[in-house]
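Hi everyone,

Forwarding the result from last night's run.
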Amino acid sequence: MKERESLMRFLAELEDLNPDVSLQRLREAESYARLVGSAGFDEVADRVEHLIGLYLSSPPKKLGAETLEEYFGYLNRDAERLLAAGELESGPVVPEGGGSTALVPRQLYGAMDRCIVLNRCTVPQLLSKAADAFRRRNQVVSTVVEIGFRLLWCLDRERADAWFVGYFRRCEGHLDPDVLRDAISVALEQPGVSREFLEWAMRWCGDFGLLEMWPNVVHKGDRLLCRHAVKSWLAVHKPRTTSLAHLKVMFDLGKYGDEALLDWIRTALGTLGECVLRIMSLGDLAENGDELEIEGYRGALMSELRRLSQLFPVVLFVSDQLLSLPDGCVQLAMAVMGLAGQGLVQWDDGILEFCRRVIRRTFVYDLRAGRSPLETIERLTFGDQHAYFRAYAELDLVSERFDSVDQREKVIELLAPYYASYRQPALLAAETTRRYRKLRWLLHEDYLSRVLGKEQMEQVREMEWVWELEAVAGEARRFLGRQRDLSLPLESMIASKLEFEESMRNRRLRAIRRVLGS
């Protein structure tokens, strides 16, 4: 058949490993594949697997593998030296199943130990740059393997899905990150993939060695899991909040790209934070209200718990968009504490007002003690010369003092953000601790049993995501406290972020497995 011959000729051309194929040529090959159909699947699959072998044996891949082997050798030697010196917390851990991909260390240390090793290792600079360049290649260089995978899906989707699952099983432990990237990239373009394919994606997304060395593979797998988890959830649950209704419209229209999902989760975090705040404010009303108010409180509390139980799992599904950002973990942890959206704005405004009062009292006390306003300004600008001269310009040029209360208030407005920045870490640590204790108290089963009726309590016990949020709140409090503790070394602060991210990724994978019915 003419189409079959043309398709085989195109695959033969790919054996020179040049991925620069024109869009028109690629569309022609895809049309040939659709015309050939499943009848030519076995022959094309053999040629694609041959292409994979040619690509993996190419000089760039061999050189990259040798570079990483040398790079890992330096890291392992330094890790063994630090472990023998007692500077690491624990020994290495071998991932379950022996790892999921090639070019990844078989031994993985804990988050704190990894930070110590990377900070104190003695890898030559040129070798480190070469290893980073090879890893970067996975993000920017396309391959002919992706074209071959695309043709397989065009031939027969069901057989292509089964072929991929079989290939993953045959090559378990030796899967190349470029091959994984291309397989997931093409699967993202399909309307659906099998449960077995998603199981492999979950396995890769739970491999933190893979996340550290080849983050592009994990991020693409995260997108695949996110889309299928949200679609499965929307197929079963009816959205009862504005955020979830907006997400349903996005998926119905196919507008669920990375930017759209990132915008959605930022808005959803604000809704989640406001929901947590309302639950805490309802707790204050319950302690001081009469019986009629208590009855209204029960209904309001149940409404918030339902909203929380419905919104939180979907936030977990889409949280991969946040976790890949530098400040994503902080945003997520703050939202769980009610410090997101309008709640964060209110808290920041409260901190600024508190700082204004402190600075106002400081000027009064210093005046009584005989200190000039310049001395006070110098202390409260913390060495920032620009801020110092801005505040100095508001003083009387001759006496170097305030000539009116209005002038003093202008200086207070200038100094308040600087002083708030200085006090914020300690105040935030105290606030998160207070909110965590209150949230644990309000969401504790004993408290809920006391304020809710039997039927309501049975409904709450079925809201498994409420208890999940309570556990996340504890991790968020520890993470935020360590992030802002200036007495801790840099390694510990970075390790706290890695530990929180790993914990949230594990929770996300468990939530996805739950919604997909595994």
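The longest helix spans residues 405-442.

Cheers,
N.
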